[in-house]
Amino acid sequence: MVSLFQQNNTDSKCLATLSWDQSTVDAQRPILYVCIIASIVHAAFWLQLSLCPSVRQKTMQWLYAYLATDIFLLIRFFFLFIVHTTSTECIPTRAWELFVAYIEAIGDNYLNILEVYILLALNLCRYIQITRNKNVYVTNVRLLVVTHIAIYLLPAFFLIIQLPIGWGELNSYSGNTCDIGYTNTFAVVLNIVVAFILPIGLNILVIGASVRHVHLTSQLQQAKHHVSAREKYNRSLVIQFTIFYTIWFLLWSPNIIIYQFTSGVNTLTIIGKLLNFIEISIDPIIVAALDVRFYQAWKKTWTELKNRSLKKFGHEQRRIGPAVFTTTVNTVQQRVTKV
Fold it and tell me: What keywords tag this UniProt record (predicted)?
C-alpha cells in the first residue's frame, strides 16, 4: 500500500501503473456480469419513462434522483474496469492518476451516501403528505431545490475535506485498487455516523412515525365504519416504502459498512460490492412493481398496442374480404350459367 501523495515522483515518464493484476480482474468479473444485467434493466426502465408522460411527475423526483445515482454507480464501475484492464504499464500524467484514484476511492462511497439521504428526503416528503395532506412538491419548491443542492454537495465536501486536514489518506495498491484510509478512530466513527447511523436512524424514525399515524387513523376510521380513499392510499404508500426500504437496506448496508473497516480487494469487499450492484439491478423492478402509477402506464401502453394491432388486423381483413366475396359470386354465376 502506498499513499498517492507520498509517491516518488522523480520519474516523469513512468509514475505508476493503473493496470489491475489478474487476480483482481477475476474478482471483479462477477460484478461486471451483474452490472451488465443492471444496465439492461435500467435502460428498459428509462425507455419506459421517456415513452410514458404519465410517470413524469414532480412527486416522483426523489425516486428518479435515487435511480440516477444507480446509473452513475454503473458508469463508475464500467469506467474503472475499462481503465484498469486496458491501461499500459505507465501513466502519462500525474493528474490522470489522481483523477482515476479519486473516482475509485471516493466515488462509490459518495454515491451510496447520496442514495441514503435521497431516500430520507423521499421519506420525509411522504410523511408530510400522509400526516398533513400537503403536497410539498407544489408548496415548497424552493426548499426542495435547496435540499437537492445540499444533498449533492455536502457529502462530497465531507469526503474530500478529510484528505487535506489529515483525517484520511488516499491509498494505492499495486496491481489492485485505490481507497481512503482513515488516520484516527475519530474519523472512522464520524464517517460511520454520517454515512450510516444518522441517515438510517432518521429513516427508521420517519417510517415508524408514518406507520403509527396510518395505524391510529385506521383505527379511528374503523370505529366510524368507514375507510376513506385517502387513508387507503396512505396505507399503500407506507407498505410500499417499507418493503422497498427493507430490501434496499439488506443489500446496501454491507457495502457501506465494509468500506469503513477494510482496504483493498478481498472477499468481504467483493461480497459487499456484489450485493450493492444486485440491489442496483433490481431497483427499477421494485420501484415499478410497488408504484401503481407504473402499472397504470404499462396497462395503458399495452392497451394502445393491442388496439393498434386489432385495427391493423381489421383493416387487412376488410381489404381481403371483398376479393373473396367477388370470387364467390363469380363462381356461383358460372355454375348457374352452366345449368
Answer: Membrane, Transmembrane, Transmembrane helix
C-alpha cell at 258: 465494509
Range 269-275, long-range pairs (CB < 8 A, 24+ positions):
270/27, 270/28, 270/30, 270/31, 273/31, 273/108, 274/30, 274/31, 274/34, 275/251
Spatial CA neighbour of 66 closest among 279, 270, 210, 293: 279
Question: What are the residues whose beta carbons fall under 8 Å from the beta carbon of 65, sequence distance 6 or more?
Answer: 118, 148
pTM (2 d.p.): 0.83
181: which strand partners?
A: 169
Q: What share of the chain is helix, strand, coil (3-state, %, to 5)?
A: 80, 5, 15
pLDDT band at 279 (very low <50, low <70, confident <90, very high): very high
**Residue 13 φ then ψ, to 5°:** -85, -30
CATH class of this structure's domain 22-296 = mainly alpha
Point out which residues pair with 170 in neighbouring strands.
180
Look at residues 201, 215, 203, 61 and name the one whose alpha carbon lies nearest to residue 130: 215
In whole angstroms, give the CA distance from residue 71 to residue 12.
Answer: 36
Residue 41 phi/psi, 5-degree rounding, is -65, -45
| Helices within 224-291 (DSSP H only) | 229-261, 267-290
Contact present, 301 and 51 (Cβ < 8 Å): yes
Q: What percent of the chain has pLDDT over 90?
A: 46
